[in-house]
Amino acid sequence: MNTAPGALQIWDVEKSVSKDNAPGVGEDDGALFTERQPHGDTPYDVEAIRADFPILHRLVRGRALVYLDTAASAQKPAQVIEAERSFYAEDYANIHRGLYFLSQRASERYEDARRKVAAFLNARHEHEIVFTRSATEAINLVAASFGEAYLKEGDEVLITGLEHHANIVPWQMLREKKGIVLKVAPINNAGEVPLEDFSRLLGPRTRLAAFAQVSNALGTVLPVAEMTRAAHAAGAKVLIDGTQSVVHMGIDVRALDCDFFVFSGHKLYGPTGIGVLYGKEALLDAMPPYQGGGDMIASVTFDKTTFAPLPAKFEAGTPAIAQAVALGAAIDYLTDLGLGRIGAHEASLLGYATQRLSAIKLLTIVGTAAHKASVLSFILDGVHPHDIAHVLDSRGVAVRAGHHCAQPVMARFGVAATTRASFGLYNTSAEVDALAEALERVEAVFVR
Question: Same structural domain for residues 384 and 237?
């Protein structure tokens, strides 16, 4: 096996988890999905967990599905599917506007989901939680609103070389609009962001540092607590992209002391079309609205509009009500299983997969950080990643091939694309074996 410099050590999940702090399943008496028993000290039963995911029982190309693309989007347990179905079937109405029973009931369930998110992140106030369509929209909201209120020509925004396009493009757009300076902390050959290199780029004009907690392309776990402290010491605000981290580890935004934190529901075993922006109350209060319309106003005349208090100020129009309710169900599900137990299971899979894939002679793992979450990105000499993905698909193994919306990361390692296998709470060592065996087949077919 060929590897970039830097020894690969599997991330110590238990030391990274701060708490399992969200409300338990069943606290929302309107959630009509099946409750599972609290995990307590019971062993992690992956087969019982897999039974909760209907899609895992279907055949693909005549074979059992091996789904290894959870970093792109996680599959949904029956409890989440049922939460959304039951909301539409029994409680649906528009929210915050009706005095009748269904509207009040729908409003209660929507706001209960907000309370669950606030507890999940350990936010100080539930009105610090803003529902968006996605993490991408949440970052764009900050870029547009915070950028409008706080940034001027010559001010600096610092990101890292590991970022998803969603944490690059909005700042480039702001650069074109306002003349800010975008700086990028480099990554080393292991796919890490050395803290000293990040800190060196902080300066008196740095107004915001924005970085992922876990790289979607490589799985690198960044030292976000230390990065946040360094940015604050330089007088900058901090945005953490937690899209890839919330699913693997407990998040405490107060302990991190970040100013903004974003994530998407669909990667958290919840539905698409729902995302979250956490922001400190004082900052959100000072920022102008991102969009105008219904539900974000206090009063409107043709001469003047006054805006509603948080979080409504940032939630114009009819929101993704059912999706928020289902996101709350996903948080219940994960909390019940225990994020520490989930993380430990995934870390074990990552270690086993690293061992199995390392035995494939012409395979190179891209990204060998000392601390990683459950992503393996790799290339196979002489075989295009798209060809690898097609062969694996013929054997029922679903992986992602491409640049993973992280083209600068690919450029840093001198490749156009990688194949990426990513693991979730429902994957098994047998599925890792299926991946390795399929890759050995690729090597035998394509490499002479």
Answer: no
